[in-house]
Amino acid sequence: MKFMKLGTRPDTFYTEEAARTVLSEVQPDLTIRINNVTYLLHKHYLLPKCGLLQRLLSEKDNSTNVVLDLHDFPGGEEAFETCAKFCYGITISLSAHNFVPAFCAAKFLRMTEGVENGNFVVKLESFFTSCILEGWKDTVVALQNTERVYEWSENLGIVRRCIESIVDKILTPPAKVTWSYTYTRPGYDRKRHQSVPKDWWTEDISFLYMSIFRCIISVLKSTNTLQPQLIGEALHVYASRWLLDNAEVDDSPDKKRKILETIVSLIPGDKGSVSVKFLLKLLRLANFLGVSPLTKTELLRLSGLQLDEATLDDLLVLTRSNDDRSFNDIGLVKNVLDSFLRQWRRKESVGSIHKVGKLYDSYLQVVAKDSNISVQKMVSLIEALPGIARPEHNDLYKAINIYLKAHPDLSKTERKQLCRVLDCQKLAPQVRAHAVKNERLPLRTVVQVLFFEQDNDDTITKKHTFPEQPSKDKDKRLSEPGTSGVHQDLRELKPETSLKTRPRTNGESTRN
């Protein structure tokens, strides 16, 4: 951090009877009120340097003590006192922390070269150009301090020049970055790295308030120089600081809503510029804050666009019920799936929908453990995925089995309703072997598995043993003595046939 010192006299300002004054043998002849603070000062020191005071006093009579009320003074009493000390020649120290309000106050008081040579404004402008704008952290800190005097800072060009300086530095190749920066990511040891990371700048600008941050990101995007992932990382860091990590707990919902809507509007349109997990977190927060329909639609579109690149962990977005119980937000995931399917139907990529199908069935295996999910809800979740997304039903079978295990009190009708969505022909041999012995499955499903097993066995036998046998001989063989009784009975049944019992192996119990 760079500093500039002006003046040589010691600080003689002090407070007496609720007023700020200067230690002097001469009685004060100028009273200035700013907000709730009264200053008792001397015309002799202030008038030669302050064009505004010269004009205001010219309109007054020549009374010994003149009172001035300076309403809406930029920077408040602290900034005024800095300017007053400059007029008295008292030593003041300026840095990026107090430069902005001091500059605005000096401009307000018209402490320019036209009033006196070497005045305060020209010295501040020189410090701003040669020191603050040349440094990275100084520029960021100066921008942070424009919030209280934003309108003045913008009109005086401070905001614009600081943003230009920051953008220029961000666009500098990382190998040429020599200024200090903040980078506190876990696992990063600056001593072991010879060059700075590409996203070195994201943490520092995340401290800026929203309007400034939006301007910086918008300018960066317009240059088409940075990778979309870097823009996305900056948005992620900013959202984590102000929204997701809830760092500013006193922020109002309205402020958070505006921040969220702005972040979404800045997300690059390129697929993968931000992660699915980040998008889903924003979407959950968007539902809570009640953002605009446009923002929510865009979040769903972006999430659905890259759902085929998500992981199971990405989808496990927790929310809280009214009784403060945490549970997986299945409605959110379902909406994202619907968004994916709408976009997929325009391209119909088999590879992407198979990835999503695999991912979604893995997700169903997690939510199936929730004892509060009804059969009807589980079936609707399963049927949300089109048949083409499931070339095999092994993972779906696992989800159904987990659900049956977590809901042992299901009725016979409910178990049938759940298992109706299962296609036994799409089960791997080892899964079918498990299903045949699964006491939780309804009998109808087991019979269907056995039928498929038998038909599959017959097809293999016919292919390898009787390749030239006419099909009409099959019925004759099936009625011949020695044919397995169980297989014979199964041939006479259709998958939809309702049975009360089935052949049992030793140790199996009779069940409905």
UniProtKB/TrEMBL annotation:
Q: Which domain of life is it from?
A: Eukaryota
Note whether ATP-binding occurs among the keywords. no
Q: Where is the NPH3 domain?
A: 199-456
Q: Does the keyword Plastid apply?
A: no
**Pfam families for the chain:** NPH3
Species of provenance: Handroanthus impetiginosus
Lineage, highest ranks first = Eukaryota, Viridiplantae, Streptophyta, Embryophyta, Tracheophyta
Protein's UniProt name:
NPH3 domain-containing protein
Q: Where is the composition biased (Basic and acidic residues)?
A: 470-479, 488-499
Q: Which ranges are annotated Polar residues under compositional bias?
A: 500-512
Keyword list (alphabetical) reads: Ubl conjugation pathway
* UniProt region (Disordered), positions on chain: 461-512
InterPro entries, sorted: NPH3/RPT2-like (IPR043454), NPH3_dom (IPR027356), SKP1/BTB/POZ_sf (IPR011333)
By sequence similarity, the record places it as follows:
Belongs to the NPH3 family.
Q: In which pathway does it act?
A: Protein modification; protein ubiquitination
What does the entry give for GO biological process? protein ubiquitination
